[in-house]
From TrEMBL:
Family: Belongs to the SEN54 family.
GO molecular function terms attached to this record: endonuclease activity
Alphabetical list of PANTHER family matching this protein: TRNA-SPLICING ENDONUCLEASE SUBUNIT SEN54
Gene Ontology process terms (BP): tRNA-type intron splice site recognition and cleavage
Name of the featured protein: tRNA-splicing endonuclease subunit Sen54 isoform X2
Gene: LOC110415472
InterPro entries tied to this protein: tRNA_splic_suSen54, tRNA_splic_suSen54_N
GO cellular component labels: tRNA-intron endonuclease complex
Keywords per UniProt: Endonuclease, Hydrolase, Nuclease, tRNA processing
Domain tRNA-splicing endonuclease subunit Sen54 N-terminal intervals: 36-94
Keyword Secreted tagged: no
């Protein structure tokens, strides 16, 4: 990607000024969080992969990668909530598959059923991260090292790659978590596995989460 394209990512700031132009953008900015948008010297870079509905990190900078992103075949991938959180704190620049920098508004629009995260769920994720917790998608392994694979392989090259990736699961899953996973209570489902701040956290051996967060599904009009 050209330097110009990466520099254009800084133009996301104009969306803060123009936030009232579109009624459809109200939900994105109503909480005033973007007024705290930060800009850092060391910024990681990633590209959004539509088939995966995830971002592939192409350049990692900073220590946040110890507790963010999942590793597959030596590459680091981020779900939309991780990607958006890093962009909001000024730690990540995101481009599309053609190398064109995505605006902040365009990244917000990727919050959808396809990406597995909607706006309210992202707010929960962002709040937990702002409190210092280590947060990951429920039941999704941070790394394939030491894990069994239910079906398929860990390849990230085909149309079924996302399903194969998400089918990887840790060994020795807690029976308590299994019990809740099998329950259907008012459409409540597991969202995130949450760990207390821990400087010794390792993706290859994260241990049991401090707690798992369950949220009631929200049905958005189509």
């Amino acid at each position: 990607m050209d330097a110009e394209d990466w520099e254009s990512c800084l133009d996301n700031e104009i969306y803060l000024q123009d936030r009232n132009e579109d009624d459809g953008e109200e939900n994105y900015y109503s909480f005033g969080f973007l007024s705290k948008l930060q800009f850092r010297k060391d910024i990681s870079k990633a590209r959004w992969i539509n088939d995966l509905a995830m971002a592939e990190v192409v350049e990692k900078k900073g220590k946040m990668w110890v507790t963010m992103g999942m590793v597959r075949s030596g590459k680091t991938y981020c779900f939309i909530e991780e990607t958006l959180f890093l962009i909001e704190i000024g730690a990540l620049h995101l481009s599309d598959e053609n190398g064109i920098c995505l605006s902040l508004k365009e990244v917000y629009e990727k919050l959808s059923d396809e990406s597995g995260c909607y706006w309210e769920l992202f707010e929960v994720y962002r709040h937990l991260k702002s409190l210092g917790y280590i947060v990951g998608r429920h039941g999704i392994a941070w790394s394939v090292k030491g894990l069994k694979i239910k079906t398929g392989t860990c390849s990230l090259q085909g149309g079924e790659e996302r399903n194969e990736l998400l089918e990887m699961e840790p060994k020795g899953t807690s029976s308590i978590i299994d019990l809740f996973d099998n329950m259907q209570i008012n459409e409540v489902s597991p969202a995130f596995d949450v760990y207390l701040p821990n400087s010794r956290f390792r993706k290859s051996s994260p241990g049991d989460p401090s707690f798992s967060l369950y949220l009631r599904a929200i049905h958005h009009p189509k």
